[in-house]
Amino acid sequence: MTAWDLLDDEPEPVPEPPKKASASIWASLDEDEPQPSGEPAPTRSTWQSLDDDEPEPAAPPPAPELTASVLSDGEVLWARADGQSVTLGSGQPLHVPAGVPDGVNGWRRVRILDAATLHAEVLVFPVEQPAAGVADEPAALFAAEPAPSPPLRPPGFPAGEGGDLTAAFEARVRRAEQDHRNAAAAALEDYRRRGDQLERQLREEHDRRSRAAEQRAEAQYHEAVRQVRQEAEQQVRHAQQVAAQNHDLRRGAEQRLQAATTELDKVRGERGVGLAVAAAGWGVALILLIIAIAT
């Protein structure tokens, strides 16, 4: 049988997988499958038939001719090795006469030797050996760890020998009491030192605030004195201005009085002359009247 015979012959019909009896409610509505007379019909609830996920049957592998038509000689691809059987991802088995050389299963790289007959070989994992004399030996780079020394343990305590345990315990108690007294004295000294430091800080803060208050009071006093002096100077200047105005008014009044007096004296003098002239005229007229009457 040649490769062309495989390509020319009609593929053998693949038997269909037997239909699995579906127990879902939809299958019972769509299909009318007669139940065997000897077996009772399976009873399943509606919810159970709707919730169960039944695995679908696996798809059959493609025909060998179809797989051979898409492969080429010398092509390298991945296939699953399980023991001595090698299968492509589509489920098509390959003919590997040499089998798996290293016996490692799983996905392996294979090379197609004859695409028409689906003959292939499993490629071994590439393993390289380092060249001799290129690098140093690991033993020269990493020295061996030194052997651990035996643990240091105190010698045993023989019965009836060694120190007095009661005296050692009492000495330990005395040391603990002395340590407690020293700690209490140190705490008291630290408390006193902190108290003195706090008192000194309070005194310094009080002195600082007192000096600040005195400075503010002195500044306020100087400001008040300056304002009083400024107001007094303003009042003095105002009084001087008022006095100068009064002096000018008095002098003007005196000048006006003097002018009025002079004008009055002048008017009085002119009035006396007029009266004298008028009296003389009246006298002449009276004499003439008397003369006229007498004649």
Number of helices: 6
CATH second-level architecture of the domain at 60-124: Beta Barrel
Order of strands side by side in the largest beta sheet?
A: 3-2-1-4-5
Q: What's the pLDDT, averaged over the residues? A: 75
Cα distance spanning the termini? 215 Å
| Rg of Cα set | 72 Å
SSE arrangement, N to C: HHHHEEEEEHH
Give the overall form.
elongated
Low-confidence stretches: 1-9, 19-37, 44-52
- The CATH topology of the domain at 60-124 is given as OB fold (Dihydrolipoamide Acetyltransferase, E2P)
Amount of helix: 40-55%
The largest pleated sheet is described as:
5 strands, antiparallel
CATH class of the domain at 60-124: Mainly Beta
The fraction of residues in strands falls at 5-15%
Question: Based on DSSP secondary structure assignment, what is the total number of beta strands?
Answer: 5
How would you classify the helix and strand content by structural class? alpha+beta
Biased composition (Acidic residues): 1-13
Region (Disordered): 1-68
Transmembrane segments: 273-294
Keywords: Coiled coil, Membrane, Transmembrane, Transmembrane helix
Write a structural description.
By secondary structure, the chain is of the alpha+beta class. The protein has a domain at 60-124: OB fold (Dihydrolipoamide Acetyltransferase, E2P). 54% of the residues lie in helices and 8% in strands. It has six helices and five strands. The protein has a five-stranded antiparallel beta sheet with strand order 3-2-1-4-5, with no helix packed on it. The relative contact order is 0.04.
